[in-house]
Protein 1
Amino acid sequence: MERKLIGVDLGGTTIKFAILTENGDVQQKWSVETNILDEGSHIVPDIVDSINHHLDLYKMDKDQFVGIGMGTPGTVDRDKGTVIGAFNLNWKKTQNVKDEIEKGTGIKFALDNDANVAGLGERWKGAGENGNDVSFVTLGTGIGGGLIAGGELLHGVAGAAGEIGHVTVEPDGYLCTCGKRGCLEQYASATGVVHVARDMAEEFSGESELKTQTDDGQDITSKLVFDLAKNGDVLALRVVDRVSHLLGLALGNLANTLNPESIVIGGGVSAAGDFLLDRVNKYYQQYAFSTVRSSTQLKLARLGNDAGVIGAASLALVFA
Amino acid sequence: MERKLIGVDLGGTTIKFAILTENGDVQQKWSVETNILDEGSHIVPDIVDSINHHLDLYKMDKDQFVGIGMGTPGTVDRDKGTVIGAFNLNWKKTQNVKDEIEKGTGIKFALDNDANVAGLGERWKGAGENGNDVSFVTLGTGIGGGLIAGGELLHGVAGAAGEIGHVTVEPDGYLCTCGKRGCLEQYASATGVVHVARDMAEEFSGESELKTQTDDGQDITSKLVFDLAKNGDVLALRVVDRVSHLLGLALGNLANTLNPESIVIGGGVSAAGDFLLDRVNKYYQQYAFSTVRSSTQLKLARLGNDAGVIGAASLALVFA
């Protein structure tokens, strides 16, 4: 009997689920809304119910499964299987996620943080091409990282390895929510791009649709900035250049440190595609050491929203 | 019978040797000069002879040894056991180091690059306190790095992991020998400190012994800069502050990336001791993400010149 994996990608708005083969092929996918009411106390029971319900639906038995893997926001204790401080889930107190899910489903459970898990996914079945050394950077509302070196996910002593979003790229730059100044996240996340655009619009005096929309008080998004840049808007092009410069600097230094086969760029901002990649690459080439420049390649993520469930499922392979 | 390890630290001026227990206690140490004549073709035979000679001297037999480990400059192919491009050894062509040493001594042999090996040494028996996640940075004529994460040395896809000396800290800064601009090595290595001192002396107009000596065309060294700074020389203090700032930035970002238990600072420049460490720490605290700041500690190296032979010997433990 071929055994299966379950991957769970827990986010602030939806919980995504998938059933996969041990080779990482997705066979079933579904999702439910995340109910963060009552200090997020419904989340774990909802996960258990949803898994049990779908196994019933597909007439599958718990013994068919190697295990469940999950990616989650917050600070993860992988040994204890607990999570704390996931503010978008309203999880302020320690949650015994592993114990409750194992008890509720009868299936073994492993977890890690969401960026690490997405990194595992892109490495396994995406742009990382199952390499031993793959770095993943996700440019979303914030910036997260998942670093695989020598075939293993790096965690560091306090689980903070891969905090690429908080690498300092502008020593006296924008104040970050983390309390430091000049973090990459303040420039190259979706919110960072908008911040850069607003500041540059203020100082810009030429002809620009981005300038007009900003001055009109319209809602500026990272996507709008890239769309306008692609259409040749002068200000938008300058914003993209500044963002690409700082991202190229951070990724160059990441590559100088880890020399992975590839640095995979994912998350909402990466939807700008080759237009972004080409510009980041220009600066990356400038900041990467020669051996690194010729051996570490920047790539766009390939799995989109599936990276999380696929990578999460791969955590369960430890039980195989 | 207790088995032993041999550690070899190959440098451009001396080759250091040590015999150690499997626990890393040094029992014998000796060294020979490095003969780089004739394209460095005497080096490997000299190593073989010196080992065989000392085993005779100590009445030890090759069967007593688990293996020989060696740290070397240049580009290492660990699988093949070869080295190429070690310019301070005159090794321009590929050297079959492993084959020749195994044949010449009858003892198994493993090698890695010198900074990695020194990192292994400080991690095993030095300031790294045998932790699973230890980063080592050596501030010598150049700057090297050895990164241990999850208990394993990181190599990257082309062996260039840990190129901390070539992390960009000043985007439009000093031109580096590697061809890039603004590499950490150009500011915080022994030669970098002198470069910074000379440039700052030119712009400085106050009272300063460092200024006087520089203007007199005297030989400035990194040690002199730190000694004068310790005596309160205003210019020297500013130089140390600038060096510490850029080093704090680079180490803060290294910590944000790997979150090791400790970053161990070694090499000649680190002889400035707590005077340097305190100043680097001030900036490190500014650039490290909060979780990282409280979990990753900067430390001074403890093993001095022995780090190389001790770490090299630890490579041989793979044969145990």
Note: Residues 131-300 of chain B form a domain with the Nucleotidyltransferase; domain 5 fold (CATH 3.30.420.40).
Protein 2
Amino acid sequence: MSGPLINKFVVVGIGLIGGSLATGLKQRGACREVIGISRTPQSCADAISHGVVDRAYTSLREVASELGKGDIIFIAVPTLAVTAVLKEIQEVIDPAVTLTDGASVKGSVQKAAESVFGKVPAQFILGHPIAGSEKSGVTAANPNLYEHHRVILTPLENSSPEHLQQVTAMWQAVGAEVLSMSVEEHDQVLGATSHLPHVIAYSLVDTLAQDIGNPNIFRYAAGGFRDFTRIASSDPVMWHDIMRANKAAILASMDLFIDNLSRLRASIEHEDSEQLLRVFSRAKEARDDFTQMLAQRAVHKRLN
Amino acid sequence: MSGPLINKFVVVGIGLIGGSLATGLKQRGACREVIGISRTPQSCADAISHGVVDRAYTSLREVASELGKGDIIFIAVPTLAVTAVLKEIQEVIDPAVTLTDGASVKGSVQKAAESVFGKVPAQFILGHPIAGSEKSGVTAANPNLYEHHRVILTPLENSSPEHLQQVTAMWQAVGAEVLSMSVEEHDQVLGATSHLPHVIAYSLVDTLAQDIGNPNIFRYAAGGFRDFTRIASSDPVMWHDIMRANKAAILASMDLFIDNLSRLRASIEHEDSEQLLRVFSRAKEARDDFTQMLAQRAVHKRLN
């Protein structure tokens, strides 16, 4: 072996997602050096004092001249801030540097790259780690966050195989399983399995807090309610950005859900026992199959 | 002390709720004997072999003559089966025996008792333990299920203070905190904090399984989705019964939720950032306050 997988790993935006990948690569010796970029000097200082990065700067320009082949820039800023980062990259970063990102919506990143570069550059491999937490910020950074988690890459026709291989190896180095699909399928799948549940959780908590008209309502809620609404404690700004960035897919899945729920409402109103039992039973079956699949996947990982 | 709190504890319906209370009282020495009643002989045999009850019968009639003051009958059958049990009680059980139940909806039990007895008898204290699991059946019975959980009793004007005191002491003996409220408030509160989330979880899983049109959709869902939909693995028959029994309150809270979600949908469609951030932020705040209250309650319990 000729040394670590990655030479310099540069993380732009040192929050939970970026900080966890940085400290994960560092602890596993998968990169020679970790450089953090954050607009606020306090975040830079925090990232250094928490041992998440080796050096930190408030602008990518300060390290641009030292980056080349074998280095990776990971864009981990809120979705709607990606365009500004890409503009800076377009101006100062060498096309030999590998670029990737962790944004929850891929269509909006593709559009941002097209608006800045004309087309998505071959060096830029769009990606999304399916991991997270309702916690946020560099203090929540966890070197094992991605272990046994999936990362979806959405390479394009002109993506460079070398850069794709480098990004794949980077995620595998922190224990993630790497999958590939189209930008469109990614945004539809995540719209339904992640973005829709978040909107529902926010709306349910808001309904109880604002609309029910019983100020004691939460006093009698139990642990099941806490688990069900955990994702409503997620960062509002991040989720606002996702709603804007994946608007079409989210609206489409919200419409399907509101239709389904309205049909269920009619079955309750008309005391249609047969239909209620049919829906509850097939939902339970689908959900039990899903958890069995997750369990088998975990066993498979322990055996391999 | 003159011996255990309860003489004979009779549990009608030996599933998770009834079995857990039976084995909890037994293990704590809070009753002299536990008798199980189940219509199916196999359930009787299972309850005995799992050590959940001392004796078991397929009909309450077989033990009626031996029950009197100091004994408790706990009705733990599915909500819509309560009427049949009450009819048997009305025919063969002494008015000195304490009666209580664990059904999730109290208005329907009150109506059932009124239809059988004319009015709810003074010996019958309606109750509901706010505890459960997506598992069910006697094999899931857990003697510590109710520890640190709340039990809501809904006594009526003519309820007997002695029977109320006996039921309160019974729940405290297994570590539960006993609260009191009206039947109407109970059903509204539970409709919003428990029944509504269950309908939503069933409907969300069903939307993904039936309506999205992507057979691989669950392959890419993550642990967050598993936690969010855990309650969709609950027993379909039990939840069908609850939908029937608490129909009015559930429909009312579904309407409030569908309205709230539809307003959120409009904010997403019109990219109303201010409104999205306002809703997400106040939902996060309400949910964070709620979990802080649960945490303080847990600390308070450890200190006392």
Note: Chain B has two domains: 6-181, 186-270.
